[in-house]
Amino acid sequence: MQLGVRIPCYRRWCDAGAVRAIAQTAEDLGFDSLWVQDHLVLPTGGEAHLAEGVSGWMDGVAETGMTAHDYYGSDDWWLDPYAVWGFLAGATRRVTLASDIVVIPYRDPIVQAKLLGTLDVLTGGRMLVGTGSGHVRGEFEALGLDYAARGRMHDEHLRIIRALLTGEEVSFAGEFHRFGPVRPLLAPPRRHLPIFVGGNGRASIRRAAELGDGWLPSMVTPDGLRAGLAELDRQSERFGRAARPPVAVSLPSELRMPDGAAPPSRRPDTRPEDALDLIRQYARVGVAHLSLAFRVTSPDIYLRQIETFAREVLPGVPGRAAAVAAGSVSGPGPG
């Protein structure tokens, strides 16, 4: 299993020094990937600007929402994922640069194809793109986009990005975009940059099977994930795939490693043995990638969380010892 660390793009302390330290620490300690996130503006117009909840059908939990202000938190901070990816490209050597997620409808698909292809060139083929449809109506309104059409926009943007990343001449005629023939003026090192479609709903699973290289749900339990995987199998068969696409899971707030210097929290610490047991459960149901976040109180605390996890949990992750022995990942340094 591949394990990655979230870059807390949404915390005000997440500046150049913090991003560099998190990225290089995670890479040096043997993590496989770094994950960025995406929001553009904070809508402040009141209840009309709710952030919709993540679908909970797999775990039998009703969808819930919250005001956008509560969702974004009190920091009023969110770094752009494409810019952070460029920074990470220069700060790291080995790790995959991923997203959980980039909201694909927010940006022109031709521009995004150019950005992604350029990043894949400059990183030597280290990109893994997690995409989403978005769930904050106010952000779509600020951009002049139809919130109700976001799923159809997601589909069309993916088709355009896919076509342009081949490096070949492209023409396209769809609901939202019409162009061509054009040449993309870029030849990425991989003609098929991996795109994992994010989202917990059935429409997202359909999109992953039809248009993606993988599926990326968030905060679903290993047991709940089984229902999603069954749906992914059905959709994969529907679209003629020979096998189920790989699955990544985003865990933005699940793990809180013990730290005596961290301020008190309402959420309990995660014992290393419990963290390892959870990861092994995800591995048993077939998860290929996990995106992990830790306590985000400060950069020092976040870094200590990464170090504790690398020392006490990472060596026991399924497949980790063999990967270290083969030299495909680094092992944790002395603790």
TrEMBL record:
Assigned keywords, A-Z: Flavoprotein, FMN, Monooxygenase, Oxidoreductase
Coiled-coil positions: none
Gene Ontology MF annotations: alkanesulfonate monooxygenase activity
Positions of the Luciferase-like domain: 18-251
Residue ranges, annotated region (Disordered): 252-272
GO annotation, biological process: alkanesulfonate catabolic process
Key word Oxidoreductase present: yes
InterPro entries with a match to the protein in the record: Lucif-like_OxRdtase_Rv2161c, Luciferase-like_dom, Luciferase-like_sf, SsuD_RutA_monooxygenase
Protein name (database record): Luciferase-like domain-containing protein
